[in-house]
Design goal:
337 residues, alpha/beta, Spore Coat Polysaccharide Biosynthesis Protein SpsA, Chain A, 3-stranded mixed beta sheet, Nucleotide-diphossugar_trans, GNT1/Glycosyltrans_8, Hexosyltransferase
């Protein structure tokens, strides 16, 4: 079984030069994987001996919405889809329980315009005692991401959380440097490991993130490694990450991959009412001031247009994509909030 590498938002991160030297010493890359339980990236790789002549690379994410509920997770995933359409050579695989847009349009047809491949999302059962005693609902759903190890039709996959944004290309993750092998056997071993609370060091205390990290550390024996903060970081760390060396003043340090705009993730979501706040007595949209707030909005609204010209929108998304409401809501529409 191939290993994995855990990316963590905490701890001491190596400098980019040190990472480059390390990868050079690996000489083509180990059988390891790139995983971010905290920041939201996993790279999944089929070993060279099992891969065919035509490499099948893709990104993968998940969007689950309860039947009959507003498709908020599906909508949220569209911003990342649009980013990848612009910045990557590879498609996005979207695992979802949705099959149609609100007006009845087949979802697979609509998202093809974003270079998205639709696949069914299946429930991955959690050991009953652990699920009932320890895990909130959103962690139970997050556990389902283990099924990406079953997508053996791909040679390499990179998992990205849907509540994140991509600012620069990261296709180098598919270069064969830091990867794991997707296999049914690994999927089954992960589930067996999850059922052993003592061996897994009570993984449910930090959800699927801790489970995957501990599996590859304890069972496979692969140590955790990290990406530099110039490549991946939390939104709450923006402005505190290392700068690139450039002879000009300014914050030259926006990571390529940013998970959540902030602790509350107000700006990587499409509800304007959650973004309104009073600052010095003035009602403003705080995401106008976030360095990636307008960028996430542009990606989301472009994606909504691409999948159907805005005809599938609900009131929340329609208001969010209206420039007047979003940029001037605090001044021109005080009564709305």
């Amino acid at each position: 079984v191939a290993g994995a590498v855990l990316l963590s938002g905490s701890g001491r991160l190596p400098a980019l030069e040190a990472v480059t030297q390390l990868l050079n010493r690996w000489g083509g890359g180990p059988r390891s994987g790139l995983l971010d339980g905290a920041i939201g990236i996993i790279a999944v790789h089929r070993s060279p001996t099992s891969a065919g002549a035509g490499k099948r690379f893709a990104w993968v994410t998940m969007a689950y919405d309860a039947p009959g509920a507003e498709p908020r997770h599906l909508w949220q995933s569209l911003a990342m889809a649009r980013c990848l359409q612009r910045l990557s050579s590879f498609p996005l695989v979207l695992l979802t329980n949705s099959s149609r847009l609100p007006d009845g349009t087949p979802l697979a047809t609509a998202v093809q315009r974003l270079h998205v491949q639709l696949m069914p999302l299946y429930e991955v059962p959690i050991p009953h005692a652990m699920a009932e005693a320890h895990m909130p609902l959103h962690w139970k759903v997050a556990f389902w991401k283990l099924q990406i190890w079953r997508l053996e039709q791909f040679d390499k996959l990179v998992w990205v959380d849907s509540d994140a944004i991509l600012f620069r290309s990261m296709d180098w993750l598919c270069s064969g440097i830091m990867l794991i092998e997707p296999s049914e056997a690994t999927f089954k071993r992960l589930r067996l490991f999850a059922a052993d609370g003592n061996a897994s060091e009570h993984w449910w205390t930090n959800g699927d993130q801790k489970l995957i990290r501990n599996y590859f550390r304890i069972v496979v024996g692969e140590p955790a490694k990290t990406l530099p903060l110039t490549d991946a970081s939390f939104g709450k760390c923006l402005g505190h990450t290392p700068n690139i060396k450039y002879d000009s003043p300014g914050p030259w340090n926006v990571p390529a991959f940013v998970h959540k705009s902030s602790t509350g993730n107000e700006c990587f979501y499409f509800n304007v009412s959650k973004q309104m706040a009073r600052v010095n007595g003035e009602l403003v949209n705080i995401c106008n001031y976030h360095p990636l707030g307008p960028y996430w909005r542009d990606m989301f609204c472009q994606a909504m247009e691409i999948v159907g010209g805005g005809k599938h929108t609900i009131d929340t998304t329609r208001v969010f994509c209206d420039d007047t409401y979003w940029y001037r809501a605090g001044k021109a529409h005080r009564g709305l909030w």
